């Protein structure tokens, strides 16, 4: 069949429905998987449940770019298989710590390019981290150790570098959570769902949801509270945006 090319999806932005295919000769071409292309994909027998992702081997056709002179873009994509993704997941099973290169793609987003499969994985950078320039920016295109945050949902894979640096409060919160230790949260304000509070001498913002069914002890504890009062809590969840969810202990 004329004009049929073969390549691997190197990057794909599912929200914007656009990405880039790396061809066997190293050339990288742009594609836009818009509504019209999706309908064509289904008409040609494509799986309606399939979502294109990095590492997909695809067949496609080429046409001149509508936006850039002397550039080409891909269309009529057909999924073949994803052996690179299979290689990535196998590595994750066999090795907790993996190797890859820190990359910054054209959108400015940081990614990890897995050294074995060349699959690009979004890099998770927490707001709790410090030394961002040293750990990330200064090591663009350098190889680093990383872990996958999970392997259950291939479309939600993220990577974390093993030598990330965190503020002291984060390490203390992790210790408290692991130990299920009760601590005092200082109240700041309230809404219909619960109480805004701080931990560790005001260094950490947190939220205490009001239990749906209050016990008598909880009801008494929550009566006549004012700003600055404290409540006994344990840490339920530490979020990457420097927020903490708490559980009321009573």
Describe the overall structure.
The structure is a single chain. This protein has a five-stranded mixed barrel with strand order 1-2-3-5-4. It has a five-stranded antiparallel sheet with strand order 8-7-6-10-11. The chain is elongated, with a radius of gyration of 24 Å. The mean pLDDT is 89. Helix content is 17%, strand content 40%. The protein has five helices and 17 strands. It is α+β, with helices and mostly antiparallel strands. It folds into three domains: 5-81, Nucleic acid-binding proteins (OB fold (Dihydrolipoamide Acetyltransferase, E2P)), CATH 2.40.50.140; 85-166, OB fold (Dihydrolipoamide Acetyltransferase, E2P) (Beta Barrel); 168-248, OB fold (Dihydrolipoamide Acetyltransferase, E2P).
What is the makeup of the main sheet? 5 strands, mixed, barrel
CATH topology of the largest domain: OB fold (Dihydrolipoamide Acetyltransferase, E2P)
| End-to-end gap | 71 Å
Structural class: alpha+beta
> How much helicity do the residues have?
10-25%
**What CATH architecture of the largest domain would you give?**
Beta Barrel
Poorly predicted segments: none
Q: Within the largest sheet, what's the order of strands? A: 1-2-3-5-4
**Average pLDDT taken over every residue:** 89
Key descriptive features of the protein:
about 40% strand; five-stranded mixed beta barrel; 3 domains; alpha+beta; about 250 residues; OB fold (Dihydrolipoamide Acetyltransferase, E2P)
Topology:
Layout: E1 5-13, E2 18-23, E3 28-32, H1 35-43, E4 57-64, E5 72-81, H2 83-94, E6 98-104, E7 110-114, E8 120-122, E9 129-130, H3 132-135, E10 143-148, E11 159-161, E12 165-166, H4 168-179, E13 183-190, E14 194-199, E15 204-209, H5 216-221, E16 230-238, E17 243-248
Parallel strand pairs: 3-5, 15-17
Antiparallel strand pairs: 1-2, 1-4, 2-3, 4-5, 6-7, 6-10, 7-8, 9-12, 10-11, 13-14, 13-16, 14-15, 16-17
């Amino acid at each position: 069949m004329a004009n049929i090319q073969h390549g691997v999806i190197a990057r794909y932005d599912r929200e914007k429905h656009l990405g880039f295919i790396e061809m066997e000769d190293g050339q990288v071409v742009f594609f836009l998987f818009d509504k019209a292309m999706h309908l064509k994909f289904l008409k040609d027998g494509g799986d309606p449940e399939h979502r294109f992702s990095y590492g997909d081997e695809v067949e496609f056709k080429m046409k001149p770019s509508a936006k850039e002179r002397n550039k080409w873009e891909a269309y009529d994509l057909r999924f073949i298989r994803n052996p690179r993704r299979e290689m990535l997941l196998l590595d994750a099973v066999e090795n907790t710590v993996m190797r890859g290169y820190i990359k910054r793609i054209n959108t400015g987003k940081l990614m990890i390019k897995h050294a074995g499969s060349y699959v690009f994985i979004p890099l998770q950078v927490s707001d709790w981290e410090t030394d961002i320039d040293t750990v990330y920016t200064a090591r663009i295109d350098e190889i680093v150790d990383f872990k996958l945050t999970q392997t259950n949902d291939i479309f939600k894979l993220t990577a974390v570098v093993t030598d990330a640096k965190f503020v002291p409060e984060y390490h203390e919160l992790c210790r408290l959570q692991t130990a299920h230790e009760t601590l005092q949260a200082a109240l700041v304000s309230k809404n219909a769902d619960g109480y805004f509070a701080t931990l560790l001498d005001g260094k950490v913002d947190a939220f205490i949801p009001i239990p749906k069914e209050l016990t008598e002890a909880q009801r008494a504890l929550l009566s006549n509270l004012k700003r600055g009062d404290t409540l006994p809590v344990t840490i339920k969840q530490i979020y990457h945006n420097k927020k903490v969810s708490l559980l009321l202990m009573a």
